[in-house]
């Protein structure tokens, strides 16, 4: 697996959810492709300093949503034809892969990521900020489309 994962044990977000969200995010961003193998439960647990059951739960949840497939003796890998993970999106235009996003959006996302890391923000806080900003922009757009004029 080429995408790095990390767990913040001080975060209010449970470690299994941090792992699940990061793997799903890497798939959505195209950093992990269908067929890419994930580390074994024991290896990833040792690397992250968490219990194997924590990684197993993350993998089970990813499998339940169709992001990964797990097979005995073959391990866990990104599912073939994996769609972007479901989100709170409400019918906005979706792309097959985050890599298909317009260049200006990708550039803005990279800038945000660099600034957030430099500021020491937790992933969850950044995601909450983006979701809130998207919701506010969506609300403003709807208000404009409903106003007479």
Description of the structure:
- The protein has 149 residues and is mainly α.
- Helices cover 52% and strands 5% of the residues.
- The protein is built from five helices and two strands; from the N terminus they run αααββαα.
- A two-stranded antiparallel ribbon has the order 1-2.
- Helix 1 crosses helix 3 and helix 2 (41-48) crosses helix 3.
- The longest helix is centred in the C-terminal third of the chain and has 24 residues, at 123-146.
- It is globular, with a radius of gyration of 17 Å.
- Residues 84-92 have low confidence and may be disordered.
Summarize the structure.
By secondary structure, the chain is mainly alpha-helical.
Number of E-type strands = 2
Main β sheet profile: 2 strands, antiparallel
Structural class: mainly alpha
If you average the pLDDT, what whole number results?
81
Please trace the helix and strand order, writing H or E for each element: HHHEEHH
Helix content bin: 40-55%
Residue fraction in strands? 5-15%
**Outline type:** globular
Strand adjacency order, main sheet: 1-2
Low-confidence blocks of residues: 84-92
* Number of helices in the DSSP assignment: 5
Terminal-residue CA separation: 53 Å
Rg over alpha carbons:
17 Å
> What kind of assembly state do the chains in view correspond to?
single chain
Map the helices and strands.
Blueprint: H1 15-29, H2 41-48, H3 52-64, E1 68-71, E2 75-78, H4 103-119, H5 123-146
Antiparallel strand pairs: 1-2
Helix pairs in contact: 1-3, 2-3
């Amino acid at each position: 697996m080429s995408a790095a994962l990390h767990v913040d044990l001080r975060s209010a977000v449970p470690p299994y959810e941090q792992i699940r969200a990061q793997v799903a995010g890497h798939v959505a961003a195209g950093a992990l492709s269908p067929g890419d193998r994930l580390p074994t439960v024991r290896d990833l647990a040792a690397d992250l300093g968490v219990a194997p059951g924590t990684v197993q739960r993350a993998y089970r949840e990813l499998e339940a949503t169709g992001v990964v497939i797990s097979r005995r003796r073959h391990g866990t890998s990104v599912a073939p034809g994996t769609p972007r993970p479901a989100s709170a999106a409400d019918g906005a235009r979706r792309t097959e892969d985050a890599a298909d996003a317009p260049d200006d959006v990708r550039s803005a996302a990279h800038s945000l990521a660099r600034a957030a890391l430099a500021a020491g923000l937790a992933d969850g806080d950044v995601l909450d900020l983006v979701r809130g900003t998207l919701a506010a922009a969506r609300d403003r757009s709807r208000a404009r489309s409903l106003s007479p004029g």
